[in-house]
UniProtKB/TrEMBL annotation:
It is found in: Cytoplasm. The lineage of its organism: Eukaryota, Fungi, Fungi incertae sedis, Mucoromycota, Glomeromycotina. Its main location: cytoplasm. Residues 34-61 are annotated as: Disordered. Keywords: Cytoplasm, Ribonucleoprotein, Ribosomal protein. This is Translation machinery-associated protein 22. PROSITE patterns: SUI1 (PS50296). The keyword Ribosomal protein applies.
Length: 169
């Protein structure tokens, strides 16, 4: 019996089987006979399946919960497009919240600059979060461009706002 434990995992299992058959035929029949082998195989495979299924079910449940949390986070987050008036007829458009939808802000800023032929950059706002600043009043066009370019951003999650500087006086 001890011989099987060591030989089973070694490189010389065939040699061990031959030796066991020659020296101890009754032990060989007990360990390697067809009914005994099939019984051992069935017993171990059932135990492995039970343990394996429990572990796999837990992993699948954790993965599903993680995906569900990410989806809830995406659905709760908003993309805010703000038009900010500067002096007289000048204005800029800020886009905040695109990173929640796994969009690379630098690539998005580059595509905005290319699409609208203007300056666009990623900057940190007062709260320390990244946002995209686009020169010019392109808020309506940005709304449409975001929907066309990134279909995973729901239309209901995009807000258009306008911020005016208070007049001095």
């Amino acid at each position: 019996m001890e011989k099987k434990k060591y030989c089973e995992f070694g490189p010389t299992l065939d040699k061990c089987k031959k030796w066991l058959q020659e020296k101890h035929p009754e032990m060989f029949d007990k360990l390697y006979s067809e009914p005994e082998m099939s019984e051992q195989l069935a017993k171990t495979s059932l135990e492995d399946q039970k343990q394996g299924n429990d572990v796999e079910d837990k992993k699948k449940a954790k993965e599903a919960a993680k995906i569900e949390r990410e989806l809830q986070k995406k659905m709760a987050s908003k993309v805010i497009i703000t038009r900010i008036a500067r002096n007289k007829r000048k204005c800029v458009t800020n886009v905040y919240g695109l990173e929640n939808f796994d969009i690379d802000l630098k690539k998005a800023a580059k595509s905005f600059a290319t699409k609208f032929a203007c300056g666009s950059s990623v900057v940190k706002n007062n709260q320390g979060n990244d946002e995209i600043v686009v020169q010019g009043d392109v808020s309506e066009d940005l709304f449409e461009f975001i929907l066309e370019t990134w279909p995973d951003v729901p239309e209901d999650n995009i807000e258009l706002t306008e911020e005016k500087k208070p007049k001095k006086g």
